[in-house]
Amino acid sequence: MDKSNLLTSQSPAALAEEYIVKSIWNKHFVAGSDLPSEREMARIIGITRTTLREVLHRLARDGWLSIQHGKATKVNDIWETGGPNIISTLIRLDKASQPMIIANVVSLRTRMAEYYIPEAVRFDSKACEKLFADLGSLEDSAIAFAEFDYQLYRRFTFVAEKPIYGLILNSFKALYHQVATLFFSDAEARQVTRQFYHKLLSACANKDPQLAHQYMVENRQHTTKIWGEMLKNLPDRF
Protein backbone atom coordinates (compact mmCIF):
# COMPACT_ATOMS: atom_id res chain seq x y z
CA MET A 1 0.00 0.00 0.00
CA ASP A 2 1.33 3.44 -0.92
CA LYS A 3 1.91 5.49 2.22
CA SER A 4 1.28 8.67 0.23
CA ASN A 5 -2.43 7.81 0.40
CA LEU A 6 -2.45 8.08 4.18
CA LEU A 7 -3.92 10.99 6.03
CA THR A 8 -1.45 13.11 7.97
CA SER A 9 -0.80 11.36 11.27
CA GLN A 10 0.49 12.97 14.43
CA SER A 11 2.85 10.24 15.64
CA PRO A 12 4.70 7.13 14.41
CA ALA A 13 2.16 4.96 16.23
CA ALA A 14 -0.77 6.75 14.56
CA LEU A 15 0.93 6.39 11.19
CA ALA A 16 1.46 2.67 11.73
CA GLU A 17 -2.10 2.09 12.90
CA GLU A 18 -3.55 3.97 9.95
CA TYR A 19 -1.32 2.14 7.49
CA ILE A 20 -2.24 -1.31 8.80
CA VAL A 21 -5.96 -0.60 9.18
CA LYS A 22 -6.25 0.89 5.70
CA SER A 23 -4.28 -1.99 4.25
CA ILE A 24 -6.73 -4.46 5.81
CA TRP A 25 -9.79 -2.47 4.78
CA ASN A 26 -8.53 -2.16 1.19
CA LYS A 27 -7.66 -5.89 1.14
CA HIS A 28 -3.94 -5.35 0.70
CA PHE A 29 -3.78 -7.58 3.77
CA VAL A 30 -6.71 -9.97 3.27
CA ALA A 31 -8.67 -11.67 6.05
CA GLY A 32 -7.10 -14.98 7.00
CA SER A 33 -3.63 -14.06 5.73
CA ASP A 34 -0.50 -13.42 7.78
CA LEU A 35 1.01 -10.00 8.21
CA PRO A 36 4.63 -9.58 7.10
CA SER A 37 7.17 -10.02 9.89
CA GLU A 38 7.58 -7.26 12.45
CA ARG A 39 10.99 -6.45 11.01
CA GLU A 40 9.57 -6.05 7.50
CA MET A 41 6.52 -4.08 8.66
CA ALA A 42 8.65 -1.72 10.71
CA ARG A 43 10.89 -1.13 7.70
CA ILE A 44 7.97 -0.50 5.34
CA ILE A 45 6.24 1.96 7.67
CA GLY A 46 9.43 3.55 8.94
CA ILE A 47 8.99 3.04 12.68
CA THR A 48 10.70 1.08 15.42
CA ARG A 49 9.69 -2.50 16.15
CA THR A 50 8.81 -1.47 19.70
CA THR A 51 6.29 1.07 18.43
CA LEU A 52 4.95 -1.40 15.88
CA ARG A 53 4.47 -4.05 18.55
CA GLU A 54 2.40 -1.66 20.67
CA VAL A 55 0.22 -0.85 17.66
CA LEU A 56 -0.28 -4.51 16.78
CA HIS A 57 -1.48 -5.31 20.29
CA ARG A 58 -3.88 -2.37 20.23
CA LEU A 59 -5.31 -3.47 16.87
CA ALA A 60 -5.60 -7.02 18.18
CA ARG A 61 -7.72 -5.73 21.10
CA ASP A 62 -9.98 -3.96 18.60
CA GLY A 63 -10.39 -7.15 16.56
CA TRP A 64 -8.34 -6.31 13.47
CA LEU A 65 -5.63 -8.89 14.17
CA SER A 66 -4.97 -12.11 16.06
CA ILE A 67 -1.59 -12.44 17.77
CA GLN A 68 -0.27 -15.83 18.86
CA HIS A 69 3.08 -16.24 20.53
CA GLY A 70 5.62 -17.80 18.20
CA LYS A 71 3.39 -17.53 15.14
CA ALA A 72 2.73 -14.92 12.47
CA THR A 73 0.13 -12.24 13.24
CA LYS A 74 -3.07 -13.11 11.40
CA VAL A 75 -5.49 -10.68 9.75
CA ASN A 76 -9.07 -11.05 10.99
CA ASP A 77 -12.38 -10.62 9.23
CA ILE A 78 -13.34 -7.44 11.06
CA TRP A 79 -17.07 -8.08 10.56
CA GLU A 80 -16.62 -11.25 12.60
CA THR A 81 -14.27 -9.97 15.32
CA GLY A 82 -14.68 -6.19 15.63
CA GLY A 83 -16.71 -4.29 18.20
CA PRO A 84 -18.59 -0.96 18.27
CA ASN A 85 -15.39 0.93 19.10
CA ILE A 86 -14.16 0.56 15.50
CA ILE A 87 -17.23 2.10 13.86
CA SER A 88 -15.69 5.58 13.78
CA THR A 89 -12.64 4.10 12.07
CA LEU A 90 -14.79 2.42 9.43
CA ILE A 91 -16.57 5.70 8.67
CA ARG A 92 -13.24 7.44 8.19
CA LEU A 93 -11.84 4.67 5.99
CA ASP A 94 -14.55 4.46 3.39
CA LYS A 95 -16.72 7.45 2.50
CA ALA A 96 -18.98 5.24 0.38
CA SER A 97 -19.92 3.21 3.46
CA GLN A 98 -20.81 6.22 5.60
CA PRO A 99 -24.57 6.35 4.84
CA MET A 100 -24.96 2.64 5.56
CA ILE A 101 -23.00 2.74 8.82
CA ILE A 102 -24.73 5.89 10.06
CA ALA A 103 -28.16 4.48 9.20
CA ASN A 104 -27.30 1.29 11.11
CA VAL A 105 -26.13 3.21 14.17
CA VAL A 106 -29.25 5.40 14.21
CA SER A 107 -31.48 2.36 13.76
CA LEU A 108 -29.78 0.50 16.62
CA ARG A 109 -30.20 3.41 19.02
CA THR A 110 -33.81 4.04 18.00
CA ARG A 111 -35.04 0.45 17.99
CA MET A 112 -33.47 -0.24 21.38
CA ALA A 113 -35.07 2.88 22.82
CA GLU A 114 -38.51 1.95 21.49
CA TYR A 115 -38.27 -1.05 23.80
CA TYR A 116 -36.66 0.29 26.96
CA ILE A 117 -38.18 3.79 27.19
CA PRO A 118 -41.80 2.55 27.44
CA GLU A 119 -40.49 0.05 30.00
CA ALA A 120 -39.01 2.93 31.97
CA VAL A 121 -42.32 4.81 31.88
CA ARG A 122 -44.11 1.69 33.08
CA PHE A 123 -41.58 1.09 35.85
CA ASP A 124 -41.15 4.63 37.25
CA SER A 125 -42.87 7.46 35.41
CA LYS A 126 -41.89 10.04 38.03
CA ALA A 127 -38.19 9.27 37.55
CA CYS A 128 -38.73 9.55 33.79
CA GLU A 129 -40.24 13.02 34.18
CA LYS A 130 -37.15 14.19 36.06
CA LEU A 131 -34.97 13.29 33.08
CA PHE A 132 -36.46 16.29 31.25
CA ALA A 133 -35.57 18.81 33.96
CA ASP A 134 -33.22 20.73 31.65
CA LEU A 135 -35.50 20.66 28.59
CA GLY A 136 -36.78 24.19 29.17
CA SER A 137 -33.25 25.62 29.03
CA LEU A 138 -32.04 23.48 26.13
CA GLU A 139 -29.96 25.70 23.86
CA ASP A 140 -30.93 25.71 20.19
CA SER A 141 -27.61 24.40 18.91
CA ALA A 142 -26.43 21.13 17.39
CA ILE A 143 -23.94 20.41 20.17
CA ALA A 144 -26.40 21.12 22.97
CA PHE A 145 -29.05 18.90 21.37
CA ALA A 146 -26.55 16.10 20.78
CA GLU A 147 -25.48 16.09 24.43
CA PHE A 148 -29.05 16.33 25.75
CA ASP A 149 -30.18 13.51 23.47
CA TYR A 150 -27.36 11.19 24.47
CA GLN A 151 -27.85 11.79 28.19
CA LEU A 152 -31.63 11.42 27.92
CA TYR A 153 -31.51 8.08 26.11
CA ARG A 154 -28.74 6.79 28.34
CA ARG A 155 -30.49 7.74 31.60
CA PHE A 156 -33.71 6.10 30.47
CA THR A 157 -31.85 2.76 30.38
CA PHE A 158 -31.20 2.96 34.10
CA VAL A 159 -34.76 3.94 35.00
CA ALA A 160 -35.89 0.93 32.98
CA GLU A 161 -33.34 -1.20 34.86
CA LYS A 162 -31.77 -2.12 31.53
CA PRO A 163 -28.17 -1.05 32.25
CA ILE A 164 -26.74 -3.21 29.45
CA TYR A 165 -28.39 -0.85 26.96
CA GLY A 166 -26.61 1.98 28.73
CA LEU A 167 -23.30 0.16 28.28
CA ILE A 168 -24.06 -0.28 24.59
CA LEU A 169 -24.61 3.47 24.25
CA ASN A 170 -21.38 4.07 26.18
CA SER A 171 -19.49 1.86 23.73
CA PHE A 172 -20.07 4.30 20.87
CA LYS A 173 -20.50 7.55 22.80
CA ALA A 174 -18.09 9.54 20.61
CA LEU A 175 -19.78 8.33 17.43
CA TYR A 176 -23.23 9.00 18.91
CA HIS A 177 -22.25 12.62 19.48
CA GLN A 178 -20.68 12.88 16.04
CA VAL A 179 -23.79 11.55 14.28
CA ALA A 180 -26.20 13.47 16.52
CA THR A 181 -24.34 16.73 15.99
CA LEU A 182 -24.63 16.24 12.24
CA PHE A 183 -28.36 15.55 12.52
CA PHE A 184 -29.05 18.47 14.84
CA SER A 185 -27.15 20.87 12.59
CA ASP A 186 -30.45 20.96 10.71
CA ALA A 187 -32.93 23.45 12.21
CA GLU A 188 -35.92 21.29 11.24
CA ALA A 189 -34.37 18.31 13.00
CA ARG A 190 -34.02 20.33 16.20
CA GLN A 191 -37.60 21.59 15.97
CA VAL A 192 -39.07 18.14 15.34
CA THR A 193 -37.00 16.64 18.15
CA ARG A 194 -37.89 19.34 20.66
CA GLN A 195 -41.57 18.69 19.94
CA PHE A 196 -40.94 14.98 20.42
CA TYR A 197 -39.25 15.56 23.77
CA HIS A 198 -42.29 17.47 25.01
CA LYS A 199 -44.64 14.72 23.80
CA LEU A 200 -42.53 12.06 25.47
CA LEU A 201 -42.52 14.09 28.68
CA SER A 202 -46.32 14.26 28.55
CA ALA A 203 -46.48 10.47 28.19
CA CYS A 204 -44.31 10.18 31.29
CA ALA A 205 -46.53 12.62 33.18
CA ASN A 206 -49.59 10.59 32.16
CA LYS A 207 -47.89 7.32 33.15
CA ASP A 208 -48.67 5.96 29.71
CA PRO A 209 -46.03 3.63 28.23
CA GLN A 210 -48.14 2.89 25.14
CA LEU A 211 -48.37 6.59 24.35
CA ALA A 212 -44.62 6.89 24.84
CA HIS A 213 -44.10 4.11 22.30
CA GLN A 214 -46.52 5.75 19.88
CA TYR A 215 -44.66 9.07 20.08
CA MET A 216 -41.35 7.30 19.53
CA VAL A 217 -42.61 5.55 16.42
CA GLU A 218 -43.96 8.82 15.06
CA ASN A 219 -40.63 10.52 15.76
CA ARG A 220 -38.75 7.71 14.00
CA GLN A 221 -40.91 8.20 10.93
CA HIS A 222 -40.33 11.96 10.91
CA THR A 223 -36.59 11.79 11.51
CA THR A 224 -36.11 9.01 8.96
CA LYS A 225 -37.23 11.43 6.25
CA ILE A 226 -34.77 14.06 7.46
CA TRP A 227 -31.96 11.52 7.63
CA GLY A 228 -32.78 10.33 4.13
CA GLU A 229 -31.98 13.75 2.73
CA MET A 230 -28.95 14.34 4.92
CA LEU A 231 -27.30 11.04 4.00
CA LYS A 232 -27.39 12.02 0.33
CA ASN A 233 -25.06 14.95 0.98
CA LEU A 234 -22.74 14.12 3.85
CA PRO A 235 -19.99 16.67 4.51
CA ASP A 236 -16.55 15.70 3.21
CA ARG A 237 -15.00 15.84 6.65
CA PHE A 238 -17.67 13.98 8.59
Automatic annotation (TrEMBL):
Residues 10-78 form the HTH gntR-type domain. GO terms for cellular component: cytoplasm. SUPFAM superfamilies: GntR ligand-binding domain-like, Winged helix' DNA-binding domain. The keyword Magnesium does not apply. Its main location: cytoplasm. One of its GO terms (biological process) is fatty acid metabolic process. Keywords: Activator, Cytoplasm, DNA-binding, Fatty acid metabolism, Lipid metabolism, Repressor, Transcription, Transcription regulation. Homodimer. Multifunctional regulator of fatty acid metabolism. This is Fatty acid metabolism regulator protein. It comes from Nicoletella semolina.
